């Protein structure tokens, strides 16, 4: 079981943490939401929780709770720029379907 990041995503996270002046990495998870059932959660982490699973990719720690890992195993987190839009992209091999707006998915 693993979560990975592209070099672009890791660079973005490292830059943000440096500017923020604190933090150990990024916390990735899922929650029930949207028309397809699940949505990603993403936040900067200042500390690990006892239940966290920690993956390191490109020198950045990715923290995931065990329940979310069931939905996220094998996911690659990327950071992309397309025209005026930029943001994180989740390359999750477990997704079977996603809603039209791209905000939620199901497995």
Give a quick summary of the entry.
The protein has 107 residues and is α/β, with parallel strands linked by helices.
Task: Describe the overall structure.
With 107 residues, this protein is α/β, with parallel strands linked by helices. The chain is built from two helices and nine strands. The strands form three sheets. Strands 3-2-5-4 form a four-stranded mixed sheet. A hairpin with a 2-residue loop joins strand 4 and strand 5. The model has no long low-confidence stretch (mean pLDDT 86).
Number of helices: 2
Shape descriptor: globular
State the end-to-end CA separation. Answer: 16 Å
Low-confidence stretches: none
| Rg over C-alpha atoms, rounded to the nearest angstrom | 14 Å
Largest sheet: 4 strands, mixed
Fraction of residues in helix: 10-25%
Beta content comes to 35-45%
Give, in order, the helices and strands. Answer: EHEEEEHEEEE
Strands in their spatial order, largest beta sheet: 3-2-5-4
Class of secondary structure makeup: alpha/beta
Q: Compute the average pLDDT.
A: 86
In total, the number of strands is: 9
What is the strand and helix layout of this fold?
Layout: E1 4-5, H1 7-20, E2 25-33, E3 37-45, E4 53-57, E5 60-64, H2 66-72, E6 76-82, E7 85-91, E8 97-98, E9 105-106
Parallel strand pairs: 1-6, 2-5
Antiparallel strand pairs: 2-3, 4-5, 6-7, 8-9
Descriptive labels:
3-stranded mixed beta sheet, 107 residues, 9 strands
């Amino acid at each position: 079981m693993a979560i990975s990041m592209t070099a672009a995503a890791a660079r973005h996270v490292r830059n943000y943490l440096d500017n923020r002046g604190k933090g150990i990495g990024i916390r990735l998870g899922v929650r029930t939401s949207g028309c397809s059932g699940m949505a990603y959660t993403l936040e900067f982490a200042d500390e690990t929780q006892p239940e966290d699973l920690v993956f390191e990719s490109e020198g950045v720690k990715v923290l995931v709770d065990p329940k979310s890992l069931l939905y996220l195993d094998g996911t690659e987190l990327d950071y992309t720029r397309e025209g005026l839009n930029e943001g994180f992209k989740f390359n999750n091999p477990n997704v079977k379907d996603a809603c039209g707006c791209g905000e939620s998915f199901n497995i």
